[in-house]
């Protein structure tokens, strides 16, 4: 006999948070609950959060795509950064592992094309590139 869980338990998929609200906001929430618009405070707050996330869904999607960590090795050549510059874009480098910037990348090109670097692991780049990007490396 096999048993299949149809729905994960609430504790497995949710996280408890604490928020502070002004008494007027809290009173308005209680009024909407009392009038039957929501079953309880949590229902209203959860709905409000979902509505805000839906409103910003495109921004969230773009940001996740743009700022996703690369797992392993990410190498940036001079040609890569020149292409980024030609496209009028800037990079937010996020790597879990090793990020490397080619030794022939001039500091000015790195400065013009890299907004931020987050590396959980190691960063290999020339001393000059590291120096101009020092305030962008986290």
From TrEMBL:
<dbReference type="InterPro" id="IPR010985">
    <property type="entry name" value="Ribbon_hlx_hlx"/>
</dbReference>
<dbReference type="Pfam" id="PF17723">
    <property type="entry name" value="RHH_8"/>
</dbReference>
<dbReference type="InterPro" id="IPR041088">
    <property type="entry name" value="RHH_8"/>
</dbReference>
<dbReference type="GO" id="GO:0006355">
    <property type="term" value="P:regulation of DNA-templated transcription"/>
</dbReference>
<protein>
    <submittedName>
        <fullName>Arc/MetJ-type ribon-helix-helix transcriptional regulator</fullName>
    </submittedName>
</protein>
<dbReference type="InterPro" id="IPR013321">
    <property type="entry name" value="Arc_rbn_hlx_hlx"/>
</dbReference>
């Amino acid at each position: 006999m096999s048993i299949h869980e149809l729905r994960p338990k609430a504790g497995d998929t949710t996280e408890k948070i604490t928020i502070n609200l002004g008494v007027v906001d809290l009173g308005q929430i209680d009024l909407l609950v009392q009038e039957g618009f929501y079953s309880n405070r949590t229902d209203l707050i959860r709905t409000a959060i979902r509505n805000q996330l839906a409103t910003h869904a495109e921004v969230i999607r773009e940001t996740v795509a743009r700022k996703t960590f690369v797992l392993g090795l990410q190498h940036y050549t001079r040609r890569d950064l020149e292409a980024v510059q030609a496209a009028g874009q800037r990079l937010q480098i996020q790597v879990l592992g090793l990020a490397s910037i080619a030794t022939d990348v001039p500091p000015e090109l790195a400065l013009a094309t890299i907004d931020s670097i987050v590396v959980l692991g190691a960063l290999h780049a020339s001393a000059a590139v590291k120096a101009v990007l020092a305030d962008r490396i986290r």
